[in-house]
Amino acid sequence: QLQLVESGGGLVLTGGSLRLSCVASGFTLENYAVGWYRVPPGKKREGVACMSYTNDNTFYAEVAKGRFAISRDNARNTVYLQMSNLKPEDTGVYYCAALKWAAAPTMCVIQSGAGSWGQGTQVTVSS
Protein backbone atom coordinates (compact mmCIF):
# COMPACT_ATOMS: atom_id res chain seq x y z
CA GLN A 1 0.00 0.00 0.00
CA LEU A 2 1.40 3.34 -1.06
CA GLN A 3 1.45 5.78 1.81
CA LEU A 4 2.83 9.24 2.57
CA VAL A 5 2.91 10.61 6.08
CA GLU A 6 3.65 14.25 6.82
CA SER A 7 4.97 15.63 10.08
CA GLY A 8 6.66 18.73 11.45
CA GLY A 9 3.75 21.13 11.45
CA GLY A 10 2.89 23.25 14.42
CA LEU A 11 2.43 26.75 15.79
CA VAL A 12 5.17 29.27 15.07
CA LEU A 13 5.50 33.02 15.37
CA THR A 14 5.81 35.32 12.39
CA GLY A 15 9.37 35.18 11.09
CA GLY A 16 9.95 31.72 12.45
CA SER A 17 10.90 28.52 10.66
CA LEU A 18 9.59 25.00 10.33
CA ARG A 19 10.77 21.91 8.52
CA LEU A 20 8.11 19.56 7.28
CA SER A 21 8.88 15.93 6.53
CA CYS A 22 7.05 13.45 4.35
CA VAL A 23 7.95 9.79 4.67
CA ALA A 24 6.95 7.36 1.96
CA SER A 25 6.17 3.70 2.59
CA GLY A 26 5.08 0.90 0.33
CA PHE A 27 7.11 2.34 -2.54
CA THR A 28 10.40 4.10 -3.14
CA LEU A 29 10.51 7.75 -4.13
CA GLU A 30 13.10 7.15 -6.80
CA ASN A 31 11.56 8.00 -10.19
CA TYR A 32 8.79 9.96 -8.49
CA ALA A 33 8.27 13.68 -8.66
CA VAL A 34 7.34 15.10 -5.27
CA GLY A 35 5.53 18.20 -4.16
CA TRP A 36 4.23 20.18 -1.23
CA TYR A 37 0.82 21.81 -1.27
CA ARG A 38 -1.23 23.79 1.18
CA VAL A 39 -4.85 24.60 1.85
CA PRO A 40 -5.19 27.95 3.63
CA PRO A 41 -8.38 28.49 5.65
CA GLY A 42 -11.28 29.12 3.29
CA LYS A 43 -9.14 28.84 0.18
CA LYS A 44 -8.31 26.29 -2.49
CA ARG A 45 -5.29 24.05 -2.47
CA GLU A 46 -2.14 25.45 -4.06
CA GLY A 47 1.15 23.86 -4.94
CA VAL A 48 4.00 25.64 -3.18
CA ALA A 49 7.15 23.63 -3.98
CA CYS A 50 7.79 20.71 -6.28
CA MET A 51 10.72 18.67 -7.49
CA SER A 52 10.97 16.63 -10.67
CA TYR A 53 11.53 12.87 -10.66
CA THR A 54 15.07 13.50 -11.92
CA ASN A 55 15.90 15.60 -8.83
CA ASP A 56 17.46 18.30 -10.98
CA ASN A 57 14.53 20.64 -11.36
CA THR A 58 12.41 22.47 -8.81
CA PHE A 59 9.42 24.75 -9.07
CA TYR A 60 8.23 27.22 -6.47
CA ALA A 61 5.07 29.24 -6.26
CA GLU A 62 5.67 32.96 -6.05
CA VAL A 63 4.63 32.95 -2.40
CA ALA A 64 7.34 30.42 -1.64
CA LYS A 65 10.28 31.77 -3.59
CA GLY A 66 13.19 32.77 -1.40
CA ARG A 67 11.56 31.39 1.76
CA PHE A 68 10.77 27.71 1.13
CA ALA A 69 13.11 24.96 -0.02
CA ILE A 70 12.12 21.46 -1.09
CA SER A 71 14.58 18.61 -0.82
CA ARG A 72 14.54 14.85 -0.79
CA ASP A 73 16.57 12.04 0.67
CA ASN A 74 15.93 8.93 -1.36
CA ALA A 75 17.92 6.80 1.06
CA ARG A 76 15.45 7.78 3.79
CA ASN A 77 12.51 7.79 1.37
CA THR A 78 11.69 11.24 2.69
CA VAL A 79 10.84 14.63 1.25
CA TYR A 80 11.37 17.84 3.19
CA LEU A 81 10.05 21.36 3.04
CA GLN A 82 12.16 23.90 4.87
CA MET A 83 10.14 27.03 5.52
CA SER A 84 11.65 30.23 6.85
CA ASN A 85 10.48 33.80 7.46
CA LEU A 86 6.98 32.45 7.93
CA LYS A 87 4.01 34.78 7.67
CA PRO A 88 0.44 34.48 8.96
CA GLU A 89 -0.73 33.92 5.38
CA ASP A 90 1.36 30.72 5.32
CA THR A 91 -1.15 29.19 7.74
CA GLY A 92 -2.87 26.12 6.41
CA VAL A 93 -2.80 22.36 6.11
CA TYR A 94 0.26 21.20 4.22
CA TYR A 95 0.22 18.05 2.12
CA CYS A 96 2.86 16.15 0.24
CA ALA A 97 2.30 14.13 -2.91
CA ALA A 98 4.25 11.90 -5.24
CA LEU A 99 3.69 11.08 -8.89
CA LYS A 100 5.85 8.96 -11.11
CA TRP A 101 7.83 10.52 -13.96
CA ALA A 102 6.43 14.06 -13.59
CA ALA A 103 8.21 17.35 -14.19
CA ALA A 104 8.36 19.92 -11.41
CA PRO A 105 5.91 22.51 -12.81
CA THR A 106 3.43 19.78 -13.73
CA MET A 107 3.71 18.29 -10.27
CA CYS A 108 2.62 21.54 -8.66
CA VAL A 109 -0.70 21.58 -10.50
CA ILE A 110 -1.76 17.94 -10.26
CA GLN A 111 -5.27 17.17 -9.11
CA SER A 112 -6.06 15.23 -5.98
CA GLY A 113 -6.94 12.15 -8.01
CA ALA A 114 -3.44 11.88 -9.43
CA GLY A 115 -0.54 10.35 -7.57
CA SER A 116 -0.30 9.51 -3.88
CA TRP A 117 -1.10 11.98 -1.12
CA GLY A 118 -0.48 12.29 2.57
CA GLN A 119 -3.03 13.18 5.19
CA GLY A 120 -1.64 16.65 5.86
CA THR A 121 -0.02 18.52 8.71
CA GLN A 122 -1.26 21.80 10.19
CA VAL A 123 0.93 24.86 10.09
CA THR A 124 -0.20 27.91 12.03
CA VAL A 125 1.73 31.14 11.94
CA SER A 126 0.78 33.61 14.63
CA SER A 127 1.40 37.34 14.33
Describe the structure.
This protein is 3% helix and 50% strand. With 127 residues, the chain is mainly beta. The strands form 2 sheets. Strands 2, 4, 5, 6, 9, 10 and 11 form a 7-stranded mixed β-sheet that branches. A 4-stranded antiparallel β-sheet has the order 1-3-8-7, with no helix packed on it. The longest helix is centred in the C-terminal third of the chain and has 4 residues, at 104-107. 37% of the residues are buried.
Order of helices and strands: EEEEEEEEEHEE
Q: What structural class should be given to the helix and strand makeup?
A: mainly beta
Distance between the termini: 40 Å
Low-confidence parts, pLDDT < 50 over ≥5 residues?
none
* Sheet having the most strands: 7 strands, mixed
The total beta strand count reads 11
Mean pLDDT: 95
Gross geometry: globular
Q: Give me the number of helical elements.
A: 1
Radius of gyration: 13 Å
Oligomeric grouping of the chains:
single chain
Into which percentage range does the β-strand content fall? over 45%
In percent, how helical is the residue content? under 10%
Highlighted features:
3% helix, mainly beta, 127 residues, 11 strands
Secondary structure layout plus pairing:
Blueprint: E1 3-7, E2 10-13, E3 18-25, E4 32-39, E5 46-51, E6 58-60, E7 68-73, E8 78-83, E9 92-100, H1 104-107, E10 116-117, E11 121-126
Parallel strand pairs: 2-11
Antiparallel strand pairs: 1-3, 3-8, 4-5, 4-9, 5-6, 7-8, 9-10, 9-11
